[in-house]
Amino acid sequence: MRLDAKIPAGPLAQKWDRHRFELKLVNPANKRKYDIIVVGTGLAGASASASLAELGYNVKTFCIHDSPRRAHSIAAQGGINAAKNYPNDGDSIWRLFYDTVKGGDFRAREANVYRLAQVSNLIIDQCVAQGVPFAREYGGLLANRSFGGAQLSRTFYARGQTGQQLLLGAYSALMRQVATGKVRMFPRREMLDLVLINGQARGIVARNLVSGEIERHEGHAVVLCTGGYGNVYYLSTNAKACNVTATFRAYKHGACFGNPCFTQIHPTCIPVHGTYQSKLTLMSESLRNDGRVWVPKTPGDKRKPSQIPEAERDYFLERKYPSFGNLVPRDVASRNAKEQCDQDKGVGDTGLAVYLDFADAIQRDSRAVIEKKYGNLFQMYEKITGEDPYETPMMIYPAVHYTMGGLWVDYNLMSTIDGLFVLGEANFSDHGANRLGASALMQGLADGYFVIPYTIGGYLAGSRFTEVSTDHSAFGDSVKQVQERVAKLLAARGRRTVDDFHRELGLVMWDHCGMARTNDGLKTARSRIQALRAEFWENVRVPGAEHDFNQSLEKAGRVADFLEFAELMILDALARQESCGGHFNEAYQTEENEAKRDDAHFCHAAAWEFTGDGKDPVLNKEPLVFENVHLTQRSYK
Ligand SMILES: Cc1cc2nc3c(=O)[nH]c(=O)nc-3n(C[C@H](O)[C@H](O)[C@H](O)COP(=O)(O)OP(=O)(O)OC[C@H]3O[C@@H](n4cnc5c(N)ncnc54)[C@H](O)[C@@H]3O)c2cc1C
Q: Does the Cβ of 41 fall within 6 Å of ligand 1?
């Protein structure tokens, strides 16, 4: 397959303006002739639906949840980046662009990242106009704090609930359009297949999660905003419903999957505490503005933190990375925490934790100031662990948090299937091998509010469409396949629960395709996943019925997809014989244990193409051309 990223010509800073001018337009009266399907109502999907409807398109919006507001975006805590430079500390669009490309270990497309930085400022204006209650300084200007991988403050926030507030803004805009009739909302629907007609994405097949009915929906384009697939690891900070199903089914129809092995492990999460735990809790990166990360200097030291004197503590991030200190990017902080624990310096009962200590900040700024900044996060920590972080350091450990991989998209956010657009965490576009904190909200809203409204018009105006209805045989074939799969899941009547399979898959992935990877480990993982998948279809037990509200059945379908998709992640990790960002292959590291890239052979985005069940997919490569930044060994020292 020939990948065409459709990057506009011309100087970097002018590409987007020029492209918007060159894109064909759909005239206002014609917009109402087009139906657009948007799957997902997180920040990407809600903003896209609202913006497209505002333009005059007819939008049908789908989500798994009972309300669009329950999308996983609501969980986002720390903030959203933008290059406003309100603190006057040296920010610019160029610097946000540069930090993001460097943060992603030079594995993202320059033009997309630059556009992201450009529109970042518009997002803040839009959200303020919607009434999003960002924190403000005494003088009234919006406040900023710092996130990893940046030496300045560019993160806008609403306490530790930024995602919630942003989503309420996008949701209000969405519901305004529901009220006008331009958006038809389909909650509690799960997209289970994509329908292609004449090579174009023309519809979806979805299961009504309440009645079990399999529904057909047609449109002129399909926009997937279905989020990330971190739950392939079972334990992650993601909401339990996050899944890969929509994007994976699209992959099976010809949408290439970009960089599936690029997973972000977040350094500051509440450590695992039991076998039957169902998810992990993030402690926002914003905490590293004031919290200091440390371990005892002596291996095996099991004293309480209060009994360990200052001289016997190792503030390892501050020691190793004096320039960025505790605010090194997530991949770097996570690997370092793991390294300390591997040296038997980890704390807590399991030894799989490091301290995040606020004692100095409380002494310096007062408890009241710290409480104002992070009160809800501290409260959450105390509720879960029973320990008061104002009095004793938090214990944290890395956990799966975000997936940089996703469906491959071009500059227009269109996948390798005509008319299938992919936005937000579901695409692979902007974060390379490691996402900087506070950049996911920025990307989701950039895609939804400011990119898709232009690029989808270019597609619609430049394409020919035949009339289709849901009676078309392509819909019939798809419904048949979906029904057969549902029936097969229910018919297995085995002895193991879906969660049991999922947990085992997650452990395999965490052990072999997690923070550190080896070729042998990846190969072992591949065969274990194949065996587990075979057993799943023989031995899974899915209780309940098809035409009913059946969450076991929902989960089973998602886990079945994870069991296939996990193998694609492994293949991608094996193919990338270098280390970069979140993909750390132990064979490729610098003398100081940092990720060692191989730009001569791997300066590309991997785009995997499905070739049939039971066959290995084909690896296509989009070369990444850096004309504006210099490829260097990433350093945060
Ligand atoms: C705890 C936590 C805190 C975070 N904090 C921050 C932060 O401070 N700053 C930041 O920038 N990023 C943060 N992130 C990352 C960020 O929240 C996500 O990357 C982002 O919100 C994803 O938005 P999205 O719109 O792409 O997808 P989501 O919000 O995940 O929405 C996905 C939507 O798709 C729907 N869906 C999924 N599959 C289907 C299907 N098959 N059929 C129908 N509908 C489907 C869901 O119902 C949902 O509506 C955080 C992540 C976590 C886990």
A: yes
